[in-house]
Amino acid sequence: MTGRLGVQVTPWSGSRELVSLGVRLSSVVDTVWVQDQMLARNVYGLLAALAHAGCGVGTNVTYPIGRNPIEMASAAATISELLPDGRELAVGMGTGGALVNSLFQKDKPVSAVREALQLMRALWSGARVELDRFPVLGRALSYKPGAVAQLTYPVERPPGIVVAGVGPRILAVAGGYADGLISPSNMPTLSRAAFRTGRFAEVSGLATALAARPAEAGDLRLIFGINTSVSADRRAARDQARRQVALVVGNPRLWPDLERVGMDLASAESVKRAFDDGEGVAGAAARCSDDLVDGLVIAGTPDECAPAIAELRDLAAAEGYTEFYIGGPLGPDPLEAAELLVTQVIPKVWPERAGRA
Fold it and tell me: N or C: which end of the chain has fewer CB within 10 A?
């Protein structure tokens, strides 16, 4: 199966380790996606280092809330100058998750995403951009009335912009304005259970995104993330997955989605109680049922993960997805996980890439 393949890394390790991890993975993947976690290692610094080391790179995902899209546009354009030939920079964007919610007031976040991608593209085109055209960003960032912005250098390789989200409004923005859509499998409406409903396009909102696509815009890139935790130590891999799942299902706003696809709502409620009782991520993770873990993250040894990843890839491909990435948490030890992905998992799932390792 052809098409772009990537891997998503999280910025919790040291910068040198993350760059080494990305370089090792780049032998078998096209794109190293890095999460934007504002209080962790800076996403643009990491992307620049990875690009200079020879990797294709992307944010998965960043957000215009608490950030200035003018700076985001210049940062991405600068990174594009470091890319080797044949590699891509993609800007994955959304409205921000729990960290953003804890730090910033959100004023029309979906509109902010739409305005940000329009502003960034306009800057990359070399145009003089009237900032009054972006009222939501202007209010949030105090743009001066009548101000005009223009980059001082040409952008020879404008990045693509792909949008992540599960609500109907953000999906309509993805279809109507972006180059592509990112769909991570650790969201209930994008999970293995969602495919098994037989109504994936409806349940996931994929139909909404495609319906919003203007005829003149060309095909929407469909990028599916397969969240994975792999280790030679099966229990450690599953414990790591359990921690991530707890952070997802402990959010009551996602409970209707869990119920919609037939997942374990009672366990999710128990996870939320653990957070409320001050038990932290460890206590909440202990209350995650195997149904929730296996439904949202593929976790286990390489021999267990490879066929499960292949199954989920094939389900997504049947719905029209043509690009894939292995998503976080990757595993309890990121460097071990990278080595296992390169040498054991990816060669089994994508055998045409085995010779690159």
Answer: N
